[in-house]
TrEMBL record:
Lineage: Eukaryota, Metazoa, Chordata, Craniata, Vertebrata
Native source organism of the sequence: Chrysochloris asiatica (Cape golden mole)
Domain Rab-GAP TBC positions: 505-692
Keyword Transmembrane helix: no
Coiled coil: 964-991
Transmembrane segments: none
Gene3D superfamilies: EF-hand, Pleckstrin-homology domain (PH domain)/Phosphotyrosine-binding domain (PTB), putative rabgap domain of human tbc1 domain family member 14 like domains, Ypt/Rab-GAP domain of gyp1p, domain 1, Ypt/Rab-GAP domain of gyp1p, domain 3
Protein name: TBC1 domain family member 8
Keyword Coiled coil: yes
InterPro entries assigned to the protein according to its UniProt record, in alphabetical order: EF-hand-dom_pair, GRAM, PH-like_dom_sf, Rab-GAP-TBC_dom, Rab-GAP_TBC_sf, TBC1D8_PH-GRAM1, TBC1D8_PH-GRAM2
GO BP annotations listed: system process
Length: 1143
């Protein structure tokens, strides 16, 4: 690798480097101790120094220096990991530069010319493109060279970043370098002559955590299935851990979570991942989670600024986030002030005059005639320019419709306000669409409910008591005052004051509208006019598995509520659920969606309820409602950690916190709607729409804390379940104006003694006061950490289920099967690492049955076959692997599963002789053997050399024995024993028999009994030739055949002389030496019974196929060689000689 020239004094390096070559202007040097035999002390000391020190001299074991005659100053211009690499650079210098330098008279001109040339070469190298993305390109280039030389990965394995650190092996630290690539965590150390290489795929990491040991207070622990590794002594441990966590998360999502992979474009281009990209991705994830925006929203910039907050009459310090469709603001002080400005609501973005009091200000005006003033913005001009471009694009894609005639809701005092910026009245945000568009949609979809179901049911129901209504009016008055001061649209200032109002419970008349604003579903609603109506028309009347599930659950959704005791409510629920399943078939319909949607329909119009459901399923509860409910399981795991942190006594009493998951899972999936009285649970939903999942976490902790004493005294999980269920069933809402509706799953409706009642407002207030300190950033960090564990838990479940099915069907030991499964999965994963883009069918799909989740193609199978199969045939092994794959690929989809792979291996290792021969037989007839087979053009495809005389074998005593009668009897016996129900295998043709013989011949190579086996197979082959010719004679009646006139008196031919294996170019030319009978090739056949009976006549062959085979040593070698085999395959180089132990 060419290096940027830097001046050094050679005398400082005399102890560390040895000169190999030199010329007038260049010196090639080798690192002292590198390549020296005997492990000299100097070499070990230099190696130790290299491991500990981070110096320029530590670039690589070889380097080239530029020297100017008469000067003591030298410049390194190239380095190399091997002698071959550095020699290429030396040759280039000799051929291109050495003769040119003699024309220069000035030494400085020589140095300048060479340095300029080297810098030009560096600019041309492809690796420099990668390096330019890093903070220190030169050092990154050096690390990249070392990474490639030390681990020999394919080019597709991209290095992301690297760190100097210490790896602990027990109590012994090893100083070295940690390399983090897109698929692997690698560590390298060379200390006192000992080299240590560690490679851990990210998909194998089951736990990634910060911990401490006896010696160090802070370490990073990597836990895999079999080992734990501790890394420490980082300069910036926080940064390292964050990068490692993000890489593990990204890789696991990309390779193990198919549902998220399809939704996130960033995961589909791993080759583009850099350290900077990971930091940007983390910021983008935080942005989307904090403001609960759509997954497709791309973050463009984050800027420090201050926002004028009229309610506090000052500028609030914070950060501005700009994305495709939003401008957002978050104060530095958590909860002080947040603002979400959809560009759809923005009218103008303007620069104001720059003053000392208002530096770099801009004004963002919105449709409700509010204005937001931002100051202290860096690079204001380019920011405004980019915002205006996006504003124009948003308005072009979604034209704004202004409402000229306000509806009833909008003229109410709540939704009418005075501007904070001026004293004049202003019109409100049109929340759905223009009046004309509403009329058109009503004509188009007359069945859609025009208002919330609660309003419909109240028209015919009894009114609430006056005291409750008066409290409701007080709440409305408080919210009206808040709207006047803080704004009433989606662009309102969100402060701690509004959080307190939400915790008290949103008034019934405002609940649906505020849910729309807090979730920003109002923007989706306004941006997609007519979308829901079209979905309803397209989806209604279609029958499928999803619609059957929906129909089954319709009448189970809030059956106690009057709104769902008639067809109006049931029909609306059916339309919303079916339309959403049609919109998002990946989710379709999941249980608990019916309960949530029922409550949304009570407080929002039908179309509004649909968009609220979209916001919950796709933004606020990501990955909750899919095939494996990964999101809910991750949050359950996060909840367990929060219990340990906030309620340590309770966590200490309950040994297995996962037992709480049977109770708490429904808290998260239904937002407490299924286990709490409805009038209380809607207050929880209020908090959820304002604060997101944080509200559910803290309320869950409050519930456990309120029952901690009883739970600690409980005897078992059943009693704990009863305690929590009774408590939740007796949570009341004294301020609710509506009739009381019991919980969906009330366990205890008839209590023998009165149970104390808990007010929901008190419980929510306690949850905020005691457990409200969790920030969005902390929750997202915990989610990232626990997603690794949950996904690996699913992988373990898949593995155990596959093994449970396979173990009874094979004789391989369970522990060996487990290692085979790991090899099988790793082979699949390596193709996903380095073969991009991978076909969709090849990707891991968790929605498939367990046995079908991991499949391999013919190349992956060939690699595994070479590594673990006992039938190694030298160069013939790959041909045999291809035939085996075709045999196992019975459905012709070009992939095989683990069960088929193991079943084949089981026959090879543990099958009886007849099973092994039968497998070999199948491998040499269609479909395993094809006309286009690699080995089909063998010279042995010509008609066989044969004799028509009885087979006579030479014996030591000179006697002869005729085997024909004995052979006929064997065939008859085998035919009797054959299972009549088994389908008879087709007979083997001449060409197929040739290939069968070649395979046997190759299998015996390098066997200890090689000579005896060759003699035996030659004998059996000659015998089978005669059997095939007997069939050929009988099938070609009327044809004339020429018989030889002399008996062949000869001993058993050696393998070199055997007619079956002889090359046609070396065959004898004398036709009398081996009489030839040329018949039609298709008439020559031999059956499995013939072959098996013939093989049984030779004891050495019987011994070969019946000898016990050990798979453990093969598995050990496979683990060592699997990566190197794949690397060489990817590099298109000759395959390496495998380090295999003998069986």
């Amino acid at each position: 690798m060419w290096l940027k020239p830097e001046e050094v004094l050679l005398k400082n390096a005399l102890k560390l480097w040895v000169t190999q070559k030199s010329s007038c202007y260049f010196i090639l040097q080798r690192r002292r101790g590198h390549g020296e035999g005997g492990g000299r002390l100097t070499g070990r000391l230099v190696g130790a120094l290299d491991a500990v020190l981070d110096s320029n001299a530590r670039v690589a074991p070889f380097r080239i220096l530029l020297q100017v005659p008469g000067s003591q100053v030298y410049s390194p211009i190239a380095c190399g990991a091997t002698l071959e690499e550095i020699s290429q650079h030396w040759d280039w210098l000799e051929q291109n530069l050495l003769h040119t330098l003699s024309v220069f008279d000035n030494k400085e001109d020589i140095a300048s010319f060479v340095k300029g040339k080297i810098k030009a070469l560096i600019a041309e190298e492809t690796s420099s493109k990668l390096a330019e993305q890093e903070e220190d390109p030169e050092k990154f280039r050096e690390a990249l060279v070392k990474f490639e030389a030390r681990f020999n990965f394919p080019e597709a394995e991209k290095l992301v970043t690297y760190y100097s650190c210490c790896c602990w092996k027990g109590r012994v630290p090893r100083q070295g370098w940690l390399y983090l690539s897109i698929n692997h965590l690698c560590f390298y150390s060379f200390f006192l002559g000992k080299e240590l290489k560690l490679i851990v795929p990210w998909v194998d990491i089951q736990k990634l955590e910060r911990t401490s040991n006896v010696f160090l207070t802070d370490t990073i622990r990597i836990t895999t299935q079999s080992k734990e590794r501790d890394f420490s002594m980082f300069l910036n441990l926080d940064e390292v851990f964050k990068i490692m966590e993000q890489l593990a998360d990204v890789t696991l999502r990309r390779l193990l979570d198919n549902e998220v992979f399809d939704l996130d474009p960033d995961l589909q281009e791993p080759s583009q991942i850099t350290k900077r990209d990971l930091e940007a991705r983390a910021q983008k994830e935080f942005f989307r989670a904090f403001f609960r925006l759509p997954r497709r929203e791309r973050l463009h910039g984050v800027l420090d600024c201050s926002l004028w907050t009229p309610f506090s009459r000052c500028h609030t310090v914070g950060r501005m986030f700009t994305s495709d469709s939003y401008i957002c603001f978050a104060s530095k002080e958590d909860g002080c002030c947040n603002v979400v400005l959809p560009l759809r609501e923005v009218v103008s973005i303007e620069k104001m005059e720059d003053t000392s009091l208002l530096p770099n200000p801009i004004i963002v005006s919105i449709r409700s005639k509010m204005a937001f003033q931002f100051i202290e913005l860096k690079d204001r001009d380019s920011l405004v320019e980019s915002l205006l471009v996006r504003l124009k694009q948003v308005h072009a894609n979604h034209p704004v419709h202004y409402d000229t005639s306000r509806n009833e809701d909008m003229t109410s005092p709540v939704f009418h306000s005075t501007s904070m910026c001026s004293d004049h009245k202003f019109g409100d945000l049109e929340m759905v669409s223009s009046q004309n568009r509403e009329d058109n949609e009503k004509e188009k979809s007359p069945l859609l409910n025009p208002e919330a179901l609660r309003a419909i049911s109240q028209q015919s129901g009894s009114q609430s008591p006056d005291s409750r209504m008066s409290r409701e009016q007080i709440k409305i008055s408080l919210w009206n005052d808040h709207f006047v001061e803080y704004g009433r649209t989606v662009c309102m200032f969100r402060t701690e004051k509004i959080r307190k109002l939400v915790a008290m419970g949103i008034p019934e008349s405002l609940r649906g509208k505020l849910w729309l604003l807090f979730s920003d579903a109002v923007t989706d609603l306004a941006s997609h006019p007519g979308y829901y109506g079209n979905l309803v028309e397209e989806s209604m009347g279609k029958c499928c598995l999803v619609t059957e599930e929906i129909e089954r659950d319709l009448h189970r959704s809030l059956p106690e509520h009057p709104a769902f005791q008639n067809e109006t409510g049931i029909a609306a629920l059916r339309r919303v659920l079916t339309a959403y399943a049609h919109r998002n078939p990946k989710i379709g319909y999941c249980q608990s969606m019916n309960i949530l949607t029922s409550v949304l329909l009570l407080y929002a119009k039908e179309e509004e309820a649909f968009w609220l459901l979209v916001a919950v399923c796709e933004r606020m509860l990501p990955d909750y409602f899919n095939h494996r409910v990964i999101g809910a399981q991750v949050d359950q795991s996060v909840f367990e950690e929060l219990i340990k942190e906030h309620l340590p006594e309770l966590a200490g009493h309950i040994n297995d916190l996962s037992s709480l998951a049977s109770v708490s899972l429904s808290w998260f999936l239904t937002l407490f709607l299924s286990i709490m009285p409805l009038e209380s649970a809607v207050n929880v939903v209020d908090c959820f729409f304002y604060d997101g999942i944080k509200a559910i976490f803290q309320l869950g902790l409050a519930v456990l804390e309120a029952n901690a004493e009883d739970l600690c005294s409980s005897k078992d999980d059943g009693q704990a379940l009863m305690i929590l269920s009774r408590f939740l069933d007796h949570i009341k809402n004294e301020e609710s104006p509506g009739p009381s509706v019991g919980s969906y799953h009330a366990f205890f409706s008839d209590d023998q003694e009165p149970y104390p009642v808990t007010d929901i407002a008190d419980l929510i207030r306690d949850s905020y006061e005691k457990f409200g300190d969790q920030s969005v950033e902390q929750i997202e960090h915990l989610r990232c950490k626990h997603r690794i564990r949950v996904l690996q838990g699913h992988e373990d479940t898949t593995k155990q289920n596959v093994l449970r099915v396979v173990i009874p069907e094979v004789s391989i030991l369970p522990e060996d099967l487990e290692e085979l499964y790991d090899l099988f999965k790793r082979e699949h994963m390596m193709s996903c690492y380095w073969e991009q883009p991978s076909p969709v069918v090849q990707r891991h799909d968790p929605n498939r049955p367990y046995a079908e989740q991991y499949r391999i193609d013919h190349r992956q199978f060939a690699n595994l076959f070479k590594l673990v199969s006992p039938w190694t045939c030298g160069t013939h092994t790959e041909i045999l692997a291809e035939r085996t794959f075709r045999l196992l690929d019975d459905n012709m989809d070009h992939f095989i599963e683990f069960k088929g792979f193991v079943g084949c291996l089981d026959i090879m290792y543990n099958g009886e002789m007849n099973e092994k021969i039968k497998l070999l037989y199948k491998l040499h007839i269609p479909p395993a053997l094809t006309e286009n087979d690699q080995d089909s053009q063998s010279p042995l495809k010509n008609p066989l050399l044969s004799t028509a005389r009885p087979l006579v074998l030479g014996k030591s005593n000179g006697d002869t024995t005729d085997y024909q009668k004995q052979l006929k009897q064997m065939i008859k016996d085998l035919a009797k024993e054959k299972d009549t129900s088994e389908k008879e295998l087709p007979k083997m043709s001449q060409r197929e028999f040739i290939q069968f013989c070649k395979t046997l011949y190759s299998m015996f190579h390098e066997d200890p009994e090689e000579n005896e086996l060759y003699q035996a197979i030659a004998t059996v082959t000659t015998l089978l030739l005669q059997i095939g010719e007997v069939g050929q004679h009988s099938s070609s009646s009327g044809s004339c055949s020429q018989e030889a006139g002399e008996d062949l008196q000869a001993s058993v031919p050696s393998p070199d002389q055997d007619s079956v294996f002889a090359d046609t170019g070396t065959m004898p030319q004398d036709p009398q030496a081996f009489p030839v009978e040329v018949g039609r090739e298709e008439d020559w056949t031999v059956s499995l019974e013939h072959i098996l009976a013939s093989l049984l006549t030779e004891q050495s062959l019987v011994n070969f196929f019946e000898k016990p085979l050990e798979i453990k040593s093969k598995l050990e070698n496979a683990k060592i060689n699997q990566y190197s085999l794949k690397t060489f395959e990817m590099s298109h180089q000759p395959q390496p000689e495998l380090k295999l132990k003998s069986l």
